[in-house]
Amino acid sequence: MEEIVVTYRFGPGADPAKEARIIAVGQTAGTWDEKWASRSADLGRHLGKVQDIRPLVDGYEADVAFPAVNVPDGIGALLTMIYGKYSLSGRSRIVDVRLPEGWGLPSRFGIRGIRQKTGVRDRPLFMGIFKPSLGLSPSDLAHLLRETAEAGLDIIKDDEIMPDLPGCTALDRIRACRPVLEKVQQKRPGQGAMLYAVNLSGSGAGLHEKARLLVKEGANALLLSAPAYGYALLEELASDPEIGVPLFVHPAFAGAYSGASDHGLDWGVVLGTLPVRSGADAVLYPARYGSLPFSEADERRIAGNLRQGGVLPVPSAGIHPGILPRLMDDYGPDVALNAGTGIMDHPMGPAAGVRAFFEALERWEKKEPFDPGTIPGGPLKAAVEKWGR
Predict the structure, then answer these.
(1) Is residue 85 annotated as a catalytic residue, yes or no?
(2) What global pTM score does this model have?
(3) Which of 3, 6, 25, 197 could potentially form a cystine with 65 if both were Cys, beta carbons 3.0 to 4.6 Å apart?
């Protein structure tokens, strides 16, 4: 029988055997008395079991195996089973979830499909963010799109906090930007498309239909804050044949799941395992040397889980051209480098911000130094002088 194996971490004062059994029994079939004795075999096949308990320097870990038959599909049902009401106790943290091969919904595009769409084969993809986040008109965004597209940007996205403001709804934005995307395609005959991930926001009742409408109007990618809106919505979008575009997952609200060190779910689960099994094609997450405090271990677990599922890793927050050597050493080419300020606030303008990344990549490939004094005048030098390396 296939199993879902979950690793829980408990603090130093816990009784790990007791807690693991509470999870294994209480989160599955529960206990039963003699009136159900004749049905023990049927009930037992749904019962979880404790596999292993290990002492740590600062606590314990326990592996609990759940029958996969309990949750044939759906991240919502999975989370309800493996953490559910037990999460209310505040006594554990899920650090790993190992699912049977084929469980869940695979991505339709992922690393390979996004490369095919953009025509970028053997280098990292360069990705930008519309900035400022709020207050720009659709025509402002179309202008920024044109500037960065002409400089060679591969992907651009809305900021995740861009809702459907009057006069600048997602539909307004795609209608203003679609002609630019079409002109970019005409100027790149035989090459791939530039992707624009439009932010999906609003009440749950209309989000699916809104996504369909945006795609009909020309959206060639969508952005969803899955931790905030729910992985079930991501599954719904990914399984709809009418929404045949890459789905980019933003980590907004993920800290509420993973921010505490002794409770919640590990970053690698929330931004790795769950989106991979919910149909995500690319997932954004904080780079450890960026503007958010993030550890190398957390980042590596996320990227490793994404790559294992064929999903594109998108390190974000504080990305700029000067740190490209570190990014390449850490990730290699199968990555999208996502820069907002690092492109849009370049001293020479957004187009120069894009060109600075291409200059940085060329310089890294030639193994040339990134000291400001050795870089010739131009976009990369200006970027390194502003943001460092």
Answers:
(1) yes
(2) 0.96
(3) 3
